[in-house]
């Protein structure tokens, strides 16, 4: 079942909103709002695509959530690490609790680390869950929680860690329906999603840079994928020495359209929720920051950072027209009906240098932050 992402209201962001002392989102639908500019690009976009904000700063999420504007939230290794290093009491409480929990669960109780890796891993997961649980208090929807990025090529261990994450949420009285397990879009990660979805655990396949990853995710029954059109564009720009592309020819946009069309043509329920945006025409062109967003208007859902939401709210509605539509996109899909097995997948994967480079980069970056997080935890254990 699809969770009801409340469309980002428009009223909030339709006003030139550099401060957020704006009317609440919720009453807008029931109020005749003559004073509000109801004709921004953001209003128009929100009619076509469910929008969600990209932030997991507790205060920022609270601010938008109070206005009824966001339903979901996400965590990732970087955000967990930031939480661990943040002096703010709310975060240091989460950290202390994660350490206590680990000491109790793995015995000992003293400050030494008899099984350093196991303890650090547990503390890391518990911290992510604690952060997720706080976010869930602020939002009505789901929170994504990432499986240890170092397990991206190990299906069984990813499944084990995901099950443990779910059970830690359950210990806190949080149902698995409110959690999405985030897995990197490797073959192994996608197969972990397949096992988890069969157990009723919903997954968000992230770091998607290639149609191949999207197709495999849909075939595995993944609940949601997060393709990154902006980073795909980065690769093509640097590969081809280009300053930019017309939005309709932006390789990142074309890839996401291809994924979406394939899902709709073959009846896959997987939600296509792009995140990571760049100016297709190059940063120098005015208004280009939202090029990719506008070129994908109509896709199922989008994660958009606050500055781009504001940019949309200041543009005229006429900037938005439907570019992705389940019916027409399905009709335009050129893909045959096919089923990927591991061997075929890996053969094709080798022919996708953009996918390989960007996926490796994404995984490496999160591995580095995981190392940083380990250091913070070690300090805390001692
Ligand atoms: C899924 O993961 C992506 C990438 O990390 C994130 O931007 C998005 O908000 C997540 N979706 C949900 C519904 O949590
Ligand atoms: C993963 O787990 C399955 C089921 O328990 C088992 O059959 C398989 O051998 C395991 N794979 C690896 C690589 O350990």
Automatic annotation (TrEMBL):
Q: Check the record and name the PROSITE patterns matching this protein.
A: TRANSALDOLASE_2
Q: Which UniProt keywords apply?
A: Pentose shunt, Schiff base, Signal, Transferase
Reactions performed catalytically: D-sedoheptulose 7-phosphate + D-glyceraldehyde 3-phosphate = D-erythrose 4-phosphate + beta-D-fructose 6-phosphate
Instruction: Please give one Gene Ontology molecular function term for this protein.
Output: transaldolase activity
Q: What class of enzyme is it?
A: transferase
DNA-binding among the record's keywords? no
Tell me, in a sentence or two, what this protein's role is. Catalyzes the rate-limiting step of the non-oxidative phase in the pentose phosphate pathway. Catalyzes the reversible conversion of sedheptulose-7-phosphate and D-glyceraldehyde 3-phosphate into erythrose-4-phosphate and beta-D-fructose 6-phosphate.
Checking PANTHER family in the record gives: TRANSALDOLASE
Under what name is this protein listed?
Transaldolase
Q: Which organism is it from?
A: Cylindrotheca closterium
